[in-house]
Structure formats: structure tokens, C-alpha cells
Amino acid sequence: MNIAPLAADHKRRGFSITELAIILMLAGLVVAACVTIVSKASPRIRIMIAQHEMMGVFDHARSDAVGGKKEVAVVFYPVEGVYTVDERRSGAPASFGVVFDSKQAEEIPNAFVFHFHPDGTATPGTLSLFIEDYQRNIHVDGPSGKATIVNQP
After folding, report:
1. Can you tell me the distance from the alpha carbon of 83 to that of 119, in angstroms, rounded to the nearest whole number?
2. CA distance 86 to 55
3. What integer pLDDT is reported at residue 94 of this predicted model?
4. Which among 38, 47, 104, 118 has the fewest CB atoms less than 10 Å away?
5. Are 104 and 119 in contact (CB under 8 A)?
6. In this predicted structure, what is the pLDDT of residue 111?
7. Which domains occur in the chain, in start order?
8. What is the 3-state secondary structure of 67-129?
9. What are phi and psi of 78, to 5 degrees?
10. C-alpha closest to that of 148 among 137, 90, 20, 95
11. Are the C-beta atoms of 115 and 63 separated by less than 8 Å?
12. Distance between alpha carbon 115 and the CA centroid of its chain, in Å?
């Protein structure tokens, strides 16, 4: 029995170490490029998440005020980087690295408040979210009590 033809068929199985090294090096370059792109987009994504969270908080507070026929207060504590809704400590935009500030909202020491009333009105003001070079503003209209995004990227 001649086994030479069988040995020739099995001579080249799998990849050589050089081929594997080249493939791993190319994969590393692709991963490095992706990490760079994602890290640059990260602050923009975090501020958009915080903006959507705050829009939800304002909409929910207005809905609770109208539906529950009671005033609902959303209080922001910029130094601590947290906010409360009806004195219940809620999430923190600071967890996204976001700093907030306000114009025209009722200011109390070390905090500012947006009041939502049962008739649908609210304390007017603008909530500004900051992270690195990005800023987003959410305006609360007094007569309607509705929150809207003032500037869009």
C-alpha cells in the first residue's frame, strides 16, 4: 500500500504561525480604530442619554401633577450632581459625567426647583446640561408646563 498520496493531501492543514500573527495584528488595528471612534463619541452619547432622561423626568412630573391633582417639585442639586422628584432621591445625570445649571427656575440655597402644578402649568426655566464641550438645553414652558429641547446638535 502506497501512503505517499495520503501524506501529500494532509501536508497543508490549518494556518501557519505567520498567517495567524498577521491576522491578529490586523484585528488589533481594527479594534484600536474602533475604540478611538467610540471614545470620541462617548461624551456626546452620554449627554444625549441625560437629556432624554431629564425630558422623561419633566414629562412624568407634569403627568403626576395633573393626574394626582397635586404639586410636584423637581429639585436639582448641582453641587451634588443629583435631583429629586417630590423629595424622593432620583437618578443622577452626574453618573453620566453631566453638570447641570438653570436659568429662571426657582432658586433655593444650593439647588433650583421646577414646580409642576395640577392645572398643567409649571415654573418656567431652562435646564442646561454640560459635559466637556457639549451642552444641551431643556426649556420648561410656564403656561403649558411642557418641556422641550431648545437646541439640537
Report:
1. 23
2. 16
3. 47
4. 38
5. no
6. 79
7. 44-149 (3.55.40.10)
8. HHCCCEEEEEECCCCEEEECCEECCCHHHHCCEEEEECCEEECCEEEEEECCCCCECCEEEEE
9. -60, -35
10. 137
11. no
12. 24
3-class DSSP state of 139: strand
pLDDT in tens, the chain (153 residues): 555 555 555 566 788 889 888 998 999 889 888 777 776 777 888 788 888 888 998 999 999 999 989 999 988 887 777 788 887 766 555 444 556 666 666 667 777 888 999 999 998 888 888 887 888 888 899 999 999 988 755
pLDDT at 104: 63
Written as one letter, the residue type at 6 is: L
- Burial (CB count <10 Å: 0-12, 13-18, 19+), residue 14: exposed
In whole angstroms, what separates CA 137 from the centre of its chain? 14
> How many beta carbons lie within 10 A of that of residue 73, not counting itself?
16
Contact of 73 with 62, CB cutoff 8 Å: no
Q: What's residue 146's pLDDT?
A: 92
Q: What pLDDT does 85 receive?
A: 86
